[in-house]
Amino acid sequence: MAPRSFWKGYLKLSLVTCPVAMMPATSENEKVRFHTVNRRTSNRVVSRYVDAVSGKPVDEDDEAKGYEAESDRFVILEDDELEAVALDSTRTIDIDKFVPRDSIAWIYLDSPYFLMPDDPVGEDAFSVIRDAMAATNMVGISRVVMNRRERAVMLEPRGKGIIAWTLRYGEEVRDASAYFSNIDRAKPDPELLELAKKLVADRTKPWSPEMVKDPVQEHLLKLIASKRKRRLAHAKTKEGAPAPRSGTVVSIMDALRQSMAAETVTKARRNSERPNVHHRQCSGISRHSQAPRKAQG
Fold first, then answer.
1. Three-state secondary-structure class, residue 37
2. How far apart are CA 183 and CA 179, in angstroms?
């Protein structure tokens, strides 16, 4: 069963318009989530808003959105005022410009969403916009309102659909030079570099999602299952490895050589554990060739 749409509206390019639906390309529903409970009763704890000055509970009707213009001084905005400034991009993704895909740096990409036709009638218009971007190696730049906030989006053709990436605004992106400028520009020792390159080559494998499994998530699920089964008040947790002693200095050359040696030993062990496939095949052929032939009548 397909998940419910996160957003519905229209994709527009000049006079070409089609109804579309959008949903997140990633999910965190599988992550372990915790609730605050009463330790004595195991009942959930309900939070209530209280006035920061008087300490008295605030009724839901008295809750409002406020912008802190000065320290502890807020400008209150009502819901109807917020609705009045709603943008046209609330329900329409109007593509007003295109840029080369490789001209957008990775740091501006925020969250990916699947964008797809929401009605069979609009599939032709959707495919025209998608294929035009794919043929020219361009991506569309537009805006869309999510949770009452306008977001810049990049529309990238991908297979039969379009990936809508929300983009970070320029003021949200920090300049890398402020952090990397003090790094020594001296070239590394050629011998060290060669050892490191060999180590990289030995550890290079095809990408697989299994490489980025969350070990903490797995340990939490096991811990929860164990506590649920035994109903223990406290569970024993595995102690972590001791921290390295301060002042310990390891030579980079020694570390790389030890790493290469370990890789060599691991490869040799794997090769020694492999069965001799060629020997088995030859043995099988020999036995087959020695079997008596069936008499022909």
1. strand
2. 8
Assess contact for 166 and 142: CB atoms under 8 A. Answer: no
* Residue at 257 is within a domain: no
R_g of the chain, CA atoms, integer Å? 31
- HEC per residue, 101-116: HHHCCHHHEEEEEEEE
The boundaries of the domain holding residue 19 are 7-26+85-172
Residue 168 lies in a domain: yes
**pTM here?**
0.64
CA distance 94 to 142: 6
Please, what is the average pLDDT of the chain? 81
Residue-wise pLDDT for 36-75, tens only, equals 888 888 889 888 899 988 989 999 889 888 988 888 889 9
> CA distances (Å), 163 to each of 52, 108, 113, 249, 266, in order?
43, 15, 6, 47, 41
